Amino acid sequence: MTLNEIKSPIKKHITEFEDRFKKSMKSNVPLLNNITRYIVKRKGKQIRPMFVFFSAEMCGEITDKTYRAASLIELLHTATLIHDDVVDDSNVRRGFFSLNALWKNKISVLVGDYLLSRGLLLALNNNDFELLKIVSNSVREMSEGELLQTEKARNLDVSEKVYFDIITKKTASLIASCLTAGAASTDANQETVDKMHQIGINIGIAFQIKDDLLDFNKGKNIGKQAGMDIKERKLTLPLIYLINKSNYIQKRTIINIIKTHNHNPEQVNNLINQVNESGGIEYATEKMNQFKDEALKTLNTFHDSTAKASMEKLITFTIQRNN
Question: What is the mean pLDDT of each run of 10 residues along the chain (323 residues)?
Fold first, then answer.
């Protein structure tokens, strides 16, 4: 099933969300409006707002507060992506030039700060303190995850436990905030909100493992160039599995490739082949499915509905996507 088919039950809500999201970024500064228009044109799959709306429909009814929850998450998420591109010196985002590639780092940082402030004000002006707390905690977790990954990248001493800690903070926390905020926007009870949070954590971990697997797909998918994580010195789950299965000399060779030969296509391809031959892909796939199954297990504690069925399809999509 395609993402558009999954989105169809809430299509009118997504259209309304897009309009509100555009308005939430408006400014009296022409340059800023030009840049935010560019941001809107580069919209991604919209998986995060979809999680917000499906969660809200499962727990009650979609309200103005739900739209604000989706906009708040998207504003803060967009701000973190802009700052990430500056930190990573990345010139491309979602197949388009990144902001820093077109307007340089100074303007990019300021735009990220502006979007962050718009998100905070959107919540504060409407007394959405619970939503603000949910999303602010997620941004804190994401920042800690990035810093932990940066710290570990120096010596490449990432154990499987540390890896899961990093991706829980970096990726899963944001997806969890989508489901949590969606539920909270309907004034659901705390038990329900906590269930949604746990579903989001498990979905987010499975989502990130899928990203890891795409990096070893040898260019078969169009969304991601194979070996990019190795070039960026990131130890992902399939690679950690290979290292754990290797003897001391083999480990030192692998680490040396990642540290000093990570831009050598031949060496990177050789490492990709080793991962494929070691069983690392199968191991990571099994782990991904375990977290997906845990998410669905908790989801099944909710009563049947169209929103629940759509949520299940969206969860499945996150681990079957090709980019």
Answer: 90 92 87 85 84 96 95 90 77 71 84 90 94 93 89 80 94 96 95 97 96 75 62 87 90 87 85 90 96 97 95 94 81
CATH of the domain at 110: 1.10.600.10
Quick count: other Cβ atoms within 10 Å of Cβ 113?
Answer: 13
The amino acid present at 304, given as its one-letter code, is D
Give CA separation, 242 vs 197, 250, 281, 294, in Å. Answer: 32, 10, 10, 25
Cα separation, 268 vs 136, in Å, equals: 38
User: Which are the contacts of 273, defined by CB distance < 8 A and separation ≥ 6?
Assistant: none
Distance between CA 49 and CA 290 in Å, rounded? 24
DSSP letter, residue 239: H
Supply the pLDDT for residue 93: 65
The reply to whether the predicted model has a pTM over 0.85 is yes
Reading the block at residue 146, the tokens are: 């990035």
When computed from its CA atoms, the radius of gyration of the chain, rounded to whole angstroms, is 20
Q: 61: alpha, beta or left, given left = phi > 0 and alpha = psi -120 to 50?
A: beta
DSSP string, 151-197: HHHHHT---HHHHHHHHIIIIIHHHHHHHHHHHHTTT--HHHHHHHH
Query: Per the structure, how many domains does the chain have?
Result: 1
- 3-state SS class at 270: helix
How crowded is residue 48: how many other Cβ atoms within 10 Å of its Cβ? Answer: 18
* Beta pairing partners, 92: 97
Query: Tokens at residue 134, please?
Result: 């949910």
Distance CA 174, CA 169 (A): 8
Summarize the chain as % helix, strand, coil (round to 5): 80, 0, 20
Domain span including residue 194: 3-320
